[in-house]
Design brief:
By secondary structure, the protein is mostly helical. Helix content is 77%, strand content 1%. Strands 1-2 form a two-stranded antiparallel ribbon. Helix 4 crosses helix 8 and helix 10 packs antiparallel against helix 11. The longest helix is centred in the middle third of the chain and has 49 residues. The N terminus and C terminus are likely disordered.
């Protein structure tokens, strides 16, 4: 008898390497962004609420300052002036930074320290080559470069020089992107004055109708309000927040630099942890205060709850 044909089975799907899977997951998590920045959102609400509330208390109406043409003059003129003064590459980076103003992406120094000490422990037990897998799995380009330099056995002085150059260049790029919003904050009030003058020109054409003159003058100054308001409520605060985030990012990279240098030197992981502890000091103090406050609140609640009666 002819042998019975065996049903063909589809070839098994090749599994992706664990490193690739980890990188994809990390990148997806990174792409999702951080949580909304409550300080920015509450600040905008408080600032706009105070200004509009004061307007209403003084007898004004919100519709008095809602002028589409004034907004078009101020925003269009400001954006155009910024584009003239800024290279396109810096503009693209500034737009990306603006997203970070509304999303809280503050790095956790405590978690980073634990990861870096883990790398140091692994290198001390299994050698520097054992960090290559971790370097390929991390989505952070700076951390990946630092680990790869460690794996390659780069000279300590050369490693520090290369990483310090990257830190300095990234800091300069970030400052240039922050200056985009500083420039917008400088242009915006001036463009608002231009809008007010344009409105007054139209008013002067209707001097024969005195009723329209007063209304026209009031409307013409809305552009000035938009210009000054945009500068002081959006552009300049955004520039200040971007600079603050750049400082945090620089501190994070300095931590990675110190840890990589310690691994190259063969320092004990405990010594590396002690060197990096200062970066997380403020974060630890904040966490400790939060924990103590939570404990005090719980104690007060427990005191108010009567003990159960004994049978």
């Amino acid at each position: 008898m002819a042998e019975e044909a065996k049903p063909s089975t589809p070839p098994a799907k090749a599994k992706e390497p664990r490193e690739a899977t980890d990188v994809k997951g990390a990148k997806a998590q990174k792409a999702s962004g951080g949580k909304p920045d409550l300080a920015t959102l509450l600040g905008l609400v408080l600032a706009l609420g105070g200004i509009l509330g004061g307007l209403i208390i003084e007898g004004g109406k919100i519709k008095d300052i809602l002028q589409f043409t004034a907004a078009m003059i101020v925003l269009g003129g400001t954006i155009g002036a910024v584009m003239i003064a800024t290279p396109m590459r810096v503009l693209k980076g500034a737009m990306h930074r603006l997203i970070g103003v509304f999303l809280d992406k503050t790095p956790s120094f405590s978690n980073l320290i634990e990861n870096l000490v883990g790398y140091a422990t692994k290198a001390r037990k299994g050698g520097l080559v054992g960090l290559e897998e971790d370097a390929m799995a991390t989505p952070d380009p700076f951390l990946q470069k630092a680990l790869m330099l460690v794996v390659d056995g780069t000279d300590l002085q050369e490693l520090r020089t290369m990483l310090e150059i990257d830190i300095t260049l990234d800091e300069h790029h970030g400052e240039a992107e922050a200056k985009v919003f500083e420039s917008a904050g400088g242009f915006s009030p001036t463009i608002g004055i231009i809008g007010a003058v344009l409105g007054l020109i139209q008013v002067m054409k209707n001097l024969a109708n005195i009723d329209e003159v007063g209304h026209g003058i009031a409307v013409s100054f809305v552009a000035t309000v938009y210009g000054v308001g945009a500068a002081n409520l959006l552009f300049l605060p955004a520039a200040a927040k971007i600079k603050a985030s750049i400082q945090l990012e620089t501190q994070r990279k300095e931590m990675i630099l110190e840890a990589a240098s310690g691994i190259i030197e063969g320092l004990n992981p405990k010594i590396i942890r002690a060197k990096l502890a200062g970066y997380a000091q403020n974060e630890s103090v904040k966490a400790k205060k939060t924990k103590e406050k939570t404990a005090d609140t719980k104690a007060k609640v427990d005191q108010k709850i009567p003990a159960p009666a004994k049978a």
